[in-house]
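Exercise: predict the fold of this chain.
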Amino acid sequence: MAENGVKISDNPTLASAEYLLALNEGTSGLFTISDLGTLLAGGGVLVGTPTTDALSARITAVEDQAFAESPIYETTAEGIAATGEGDRFRVENADAAIAYDIYDHDAGGVATFLTDIPAGSALVTKPTISNALSEYAPQAATARGNIGAASAAVLSDVSLAVGDVAARTQGIYSDGGVIQFDPVVDGAADGETGMVFAITDANDQACFAISPEGGVYIAQLYTQDFVFDALSAETYAIEDDTSLGYAFAIADANERIGFGVRQTGEVDIKGGARLGGQAAGWDFVIVDGNDRIGMGLKDGVLYVPQISAEGQTTSNTNLRNMLFSDKVRLTTPMVQLPVAQYNTIMNYGQSLGEGNETWPSLSKLWQQGALMVGDNVDNLGVETYDAMGVAQFNPLVANTHNTVSNLTGAEEALLSPGDNNKGEPPVIGLTNGLKFWMNRRALALDDGRNLVAMSSAQAGRTIAQLSKVNSQDAVDRWAGMISGIQLAKDLADAASATCVCPILTWIQGEFDYNTTNGSTNATRALYRAALETLFDDANTDIPAITGQGLPPLKLMYQTGGSYTRDADMNGAPDLHVGMAQLEVAIARDDVVMVGPVYPYTDKGGHLDSNGARWYGHQQAKVAAKILAGEGWQPLRPIEIEKTGATIFVHYHVPQPPLRFAPTYWSYFEGFDYADKGFAVTSADAATVYAVETVQIVSDTIIAITCAVEPPDDALLWYADLDIANHDGQGNVCDSDPTLAIDRYEYVPERGMYASANRPELVGRRYDLRNWSVAFVHPITYSEF
């Protein structure tokens, strides 16, 4: 090396290079970087070299930056000469609205046009806007005509390409795929002050603009029959009353008000209607041009046409009623749950509970985990619990018996109408339905908790005769029921299993609706007191046997149908047994009233086998809700009010909305009364006020219109016996869609009456809608 030479290691490191020193066949020389790349690519050195996403992104960013910084050539020829094949370059455009054109340098020195980029100055050009903006009417009409499925299809094909114009909106444009926003230069156009913001079409015609003063301009604003040519937010005055100013108004070009907000806060609308104000003591009203009130708000209550200001509005009170029902559902009874291996369901009461005339028996298929003691659920004894056959746990099936043994189907067919043989007491439907629910809830064929159905009901007895302290005769029927609880507990103990009593059903009251059979409790107050005592005694004696920590749930029906009476033992107008039962159910958290008994099929008083099983499944539905933690009350009135000749009844509705439907009490007649079971009388029930119409006016409200306005102390009855000849029933129910697991059966070969052949019922699952309880209340009754 020459003495004045420089060592290679002493040279600085370069970030890039244009040439390399190369040696080829003994000759050294300079070699360009691009030729080196070509050589390497041709030799396959670079083929298949992986490129990561991150590297690709960096390469793309570098290319984009290089393109953005590249010169804009005067002609395509200059661009071709200055770039290589495959490169992209920019060329000036003579149009002042175009910033530049973009071309690709293709093979053979061809410049292929791609797109143009609009100039920024063009994007901020102000549209010409007339005072009324009416020149845009054709465009507005075209736009309205384009709205629809066809234009939607076209719009779905529109895509936004990188480098293309994203929006023809003043101050907003797309440059290289990035949305830009430029300030608008103030200026004047056709006498208008320059716009701060505007939306224009491709021809720079504005459809929407905002002035520096905050005014909003729209080309044309259409309503159905009125056009606002100028839309502004200013203070206007009505032509005929310049003293009445507006804080805000929408007016046409002739200053006719289409919408205005007064300084007082009232709102005027084209046509003379007005919203707001405190006219005639209203907090808020909507009136027409003649000051007739269409809707008003007073003291927090909303009033609508045809509803008197003296009464609650339908919408408000309907919501209030449903909130009442929500509260009922959230009030959980504190009762014993079926958590043991054996869980006794004891039925107690009189003939309808015992199952008189419920032949032929129907429930022959065993529901796993549903049991009985012996060969029948019925207690053959009175003061003791005497099971039929061997006292052991057996699968639960229904059997008609003759007090000695179970009958065959052929023997059932030989029974005569009116025979009191028991075959299908309601406790069987209750136990099967509840056990099915428990198994399904556990996702098992059998959840391991057996339900034991037992019945110690005694036909033809008053509440006194069935009480722990019998004040009517010397027979201890209470002991017969309690010994059944003990029997189930003893059998469970023998199997080293646990046993509790989660449910006691009470199906009684018929012999306390009058004094014919010796009742001494035939008033509302006396029957209620006796019932409270009976339930208190059950809460003492049953846990004493089973050791359970909570009382059993008492499931009760409301005595009704043809057993109803319209006066108590003192002659006072009342449904005394049914109302006492309802009051006890509402007052206690260990008692629920499932509902009335009148809707179900019967044999002229006693339920038939379908009716008893049907009601049993209704019990099961309610019991399942209680065991799941829900509260329950039957369909019942919670407020009654009168407006003129119309009485409004507000209901607690378990499953809205209210409905009208026929009942099947009394030999399957399918009663559907014109007055739906309602009657209105004087306070002493001596005068009956004719009911003209009964209508459901909301989900929870029924309107009853009388021929004349009843007095303020009038009574409203539902499901009376003789006052309006309703035979203890009515047609009001809810819309509960629940269906039982069992179906209505017609089995004439086993003695079922021909009247039981109802085509609308046969083969269908029992529907478990909820029916209104029977009641009598003053028309001023309210729980609010």
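Check your answer against the key: The CA atoms of residues 310 and 643 lie 8 Å apart.
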